[in-house]
Amino acid sequence: MLVLRQFGKVARPLFFAALALLMAFPFYWMVTSALKTNDEIWQSPPTLWPQDPLWGNFAAAWNEAPFFRYMGNSIFVAGSIVLLQVINSGMMAYALTHMKFRLKGLFAGIILFGYMVPATAVYLPGYLVLSELHLLDSYAGLILSNCVSVFSIFLIRQAFIQVPHELVEAGEADGASHMRILWTLLVPVTRSSFAVLALITFIDQYNNYFWPMLITKDPNLQLVSAGLRSFFVEGGAYGLKWPLIMAASAFTIAPLLLVFAIAQKTIMQSVNMTAGSSKG
Amino acid sequence: MTRSKGMGSLKPVLFTLPAMIPFAVFWLAPLLYVFYLSFTEWDFMNPEKTFVGFSNYTDLLSNPAFYKALRVTLLFCAGSVIPVILIGLCLALLMNVRLKGSALYQVLLFSPWVTPTVAVSIVWSWIYEPEVGLANTVLSWVGLAPIGWLQDPKWALVGVLLVTVWKSVGWAMIFYLVALRNVPSDLLEAAGLDGANPWQKFIRVTLPLISPTTLFLFIVQVIGALQAYDQINVLTQGGPSGSTRTLLYMYYQSAFESFQIGEASSVAMILVCGCMLLSLLSLEVSRRTSHY
Q1: How many structural domains compose chain A?
Q2: Parallel, antiparallel, or unpaired: how do β-strands B40-41 and B50-51 relate?
Q3: Which candidate, A259, B48, B107, B136, has a CA 20 to 30 Å from the CA of B206?
Q4: What pLDDT, in 10s, does the model give residues B106-119?
Q5: Quick check: helix, strand or coil at residue B266?
Q6: CB-closest option in B31, B100, B286 to A13
Q7: Does the keyword ATP-binding belong to this entry (chain A) (predicted)?
Q8: What is the distance in angstroms between the Cα of B154 and the nearest Cα belonging to chain A?
Q9: Residue A105 within any structural domain of the chain
Q10: Is residue B268 part of a domain?
Q11: What is the DSSP string of A135-176?
Q12: Chain B: closest CA distance from residue A116 (Å)
């Protein structure tokens, strides 16, 4: 038993080190492939580190397609969506938890119903609705069609439920408006939930591919995933420019890994909250 | 006086409008619309939609392509959800001790989840390259024949599933770590005093206590698998010969490639019903298990 435990003490860290390396290996492979020449990338057996790292590949890929524009689009659209979701989730959750009104049950039911409907299944009619509203191929279409999230509403509702109602009543007694109570009393108390909402929504929207690709045909409006994909298909011509494709993938991923590195604690904390909000 | 009272009952509704208006426009209306479209025949171009009753559904049920897509969808669900949950749980159990550098490992294992599916799928398509790709190079080191990862109908789904599982195991592991930390240690000690061995402790105490997490992961993963699109689009586009065409991919292709709106809508309704059934099931189960 003791031997086994000693063995576990050595084996466990080794196992996790190996596993972490294995999981991270596609990222390593992406970056090192980005530094190779086209000949070297087609060499067999492959080299673990390029003989002569070509850092210029990153600049070449960056200039070959409008990646600055793509990433700017993604960051702008994702940022706007985060802002709108903070506002409408906050107000909705406030009404559901700290106000009394006749339609409350109905609205809560509708939101719950939305939680059960897969977004992808309504893309076709959603596309038709956007086209009726003349919002195809516009930033407004990209942003407005994603500006509510049932997940965000659930997350904030869960946080607001735990705020004692006396706090709201005290605010009302002081003559504060509901808006004031919401933004100056409740939001500061529950700011960690809002941080989780902002991060998860930003990551989701930055990575969003299917829906933005459907509703925008204008290359100037492409988000980064769709831009990368068209670079892969056209510019890269499936394998003629693999190093450049890898370089492009690398700087598409980089901002998210950076966000993740900085906000790692908050994102991990989101697990706790998501599991909590799922219990309704 | 009456007026201010009236305003009072209007205010809560005003608070819900910023969420409810976009929700109605972009969720509810499309859902009703797709329900209606599933009873029509339409090709996008024609201004007229012909009402055809249930014929889209009956056509679908007699179409072998539908059953093939259904089969791929079920295989995709099973092949992604079961490994993600099992591996995620095993990793969490192994990590649920004092382990040096565990924060770093968590970050590394979690990072595929954060990164765009399209970008990582492109990297994987290079790893799967048949001639010089890393996957086949590794196979040759251990003396195995190369595999047509994305070209061979027998392997393409496996190739897509590997990427999908790689993306999610770290995420599942984090959920299980949180759940395992919430298992009260005195319960485990009490079981130990009663003579339970570690395996019995795990089966009788730990597993039931973390079952809400398992249920949550199961539902979320199944719904995610039903909606998987990005990795299929980049890696195989549903091919070769339909071996990775799920119901969702079939829906996309009949809607936006062959413009059979009626058929696409009926596939969408089947997906919606499947997801709603699963969610209702999960609510029911969590209501029953939340007693303890």
Answers
A1: 1
A2: antiparallel
A3: B107
A4: 888 888 998 999 99
A5: helix
A6: B100
A7: no
A8: 22
A9: yes
A10: yes
A11: -TTSHHHHHHTTS--HHHHHHHHHHHHTS-HHHHHHHHHTT-
A12: 5
Q: What is the ipTM of this complex?
A: 0.87
A146: CATH: 1.10.3720.10
* Residues B203-239: b if buried by 16+ CB within 10 A, e if exposed: eebbeebbebbbbbbbbbbbbbbbbbbbbbbbbbebb
pLDDT at res. A209: 93
Comparing B130 with B80, which gets the higher pLDDT? B80
Q: Tokens 């105490």 identify what position?
A: B205
This prediction's pTM: 0.89
Q: Which domain range does residue B110 map to? A: 71-289
Residue A72, token pair as written in the block: 């700017």
Question: Of B13, B122, B163, B236, which to mutate for an interface test with A (greatest number of A Cβ within 10 Å)?
Answer: B122
To the nearest whole Å, the CA of B56 is away from the closest chain A CA by: 16
Residue A46's domain comprises: 31-275
Which chain B positions have a beta carbon within 8 Å of A214's beta carbon? Answer: 256
Q: What is the DSSP string of B37-80?
A: HTTEE--SSSS--EE-TTHHHHHHHT-HHHHHHHHHHHHHHHHH
CB atoms within 10 A of CB B133: 21
Q: Which residues of A touch B280 (CB under 8 A)?
A: 116
Q: Is the Cβ pair B108, A24 closer than 8 Å?
A: yes
Distance of alpha carbon B153 from alpha carbon B232, whole angstroms:
13
Does some domain include residue B48? no
Instruction: From first to last of the 280 residues of chain A, give the pLDDT tens digit.
Output: 566 666 667 788 888 888 888 889 999 999 998 898 888 888 777 888 888 888 888 888 898 889 999 999 999 999 999 999 999 999 999 999 998 888 888 888 888 888 778 888 889 999 999 999 999 999 999 999 999 999 899 899 989 999 999 999 999 899 889 999 999 999 999 998 999 999 999 999 999 999 999 999 898 999 999 999 988 887 555 556 888 889 999 989 998 888 888 888 888 777 777 765 544 3
Q: To the nearest whole angstrom, how far is the Cα of A208 from the nearest Cα of chain B?
A: 8
Q: Do A99 and B11 touch (CB under 8 A)?
A: yes
Measured between beta carbons, which residues in chain A are less than 8 angstroms from residue B223? 118
- Cβ-defined contact of A12 to B265 (cutoff 8 Å): no
Residue A16 lies in a domain: no
Q: B40 φ, ψ to 5°?
A: -125, 165
Q: Which amino acid is at A266?
A: T
Neighbours of B28 (CB within 10 A): 16
Q: Which residues of B touch A24 (CB under 8 A)?
A: 108, 111
Looking at chain A, which residue has its C-alpha nearest residue B178? A272
- Closest partner CB to A91 (pick from B19, B26, B123): B19
